[in-house]
Specification:
The chain is built from 9 helices and no strands. It is an all-alpha fold. The chain is globular.
Length: 209
């Protein structure tokens, strides 16, 4: 595998993961909970493992070839983001809920599933990896599938580094400040709503056009 391409992908991947979006909003929410951030972040990472594997083995391309399938994924993903955003905005305090998090009483498995939904149901993530991974595959050496699996794994590591940092920093900086935590929870909820509505708007424009 071409190490130059690997390094180039790593650098670009870090820059892309550093751009705030739904994953950031959910990671911030995980940090503002009293329980561990690990289940939520691991859920998001597991979702990206699924997406990257789908792209590497060709399932992602198959989905995009059928407009109905991609539209369905987009609508479901947008609806999920709207649900998380609405939940965040209607939470009573910043202690138990943020960016769609359930009350602290929810177990780690519930947070894991929610985190996985955030990354798996985000059509932007699928389309981004579909656009990027093939560009960094060398025609020599390993099979294209093997190379894309390695690149996908590197993307997951980038996500792990950034999202754990975001979650832990939000806990450290905002966990002891309920007022600031509540404000950040609302901002995270708005981010979810904006992205969800944006996806629905794009699909509506495509149908009208």
């Amino acid at each position: 595998m071409d190490m130059t391409l690997l390094v180039q992908f790593w650098v670009l991947g870090v820059l892309l993961v550093l751009v705030p979006g739904p994953d950031w909003a959910y990671a911030i929410g995980a940090g503002l909970r009293a329980q561990s951030v690990t289940p939520s972040v691991l859920g998001m990472l597991s979702g990206y493992v699924v997406v990257a594997t789908a792209v590497a083995v060709g399932v992602g391309a198959l989905v995009t070839e059928y407009p109905v399938a991609l539209t369905t994924l987009s609508v479901v993903g947008a609806g999920y983001l709207l649900y998380l955003g609405t939940t965040a905005l209607t939470a009573q305090t910043g202690e138990g809920m943020a960016a769609g998090d359930a009350p602290v009483a929810d177990g780690g498995s519930a947070q894991f599933v929610k985190g996985m939904g955030v990354s798996t149901l985000n059509p932007k993530g699928l389309l981004l990896l579909m656009a990027l991974l093939p560009q960094f595959v060398s025609p020599q050496g390993w099979s294209s599938t093997g190379q894309m699996l390695v690149l996908g794994g590197l993307h997951v590591l980038n996500c792990a580094t950034v999202y754990f940092a975001v979650a832990l920093l939000s806990r450290k900086l905002l966990g002891s400040r309920p007022g600031a935590g509540t404000v950040m929870s609302k901002i995270a909820g708005v981010m979810m709503l904006v992205v969800g509505l944006g996806i629905l708007g794009e699909k509506a424009a495509e149908l009208v056009g």
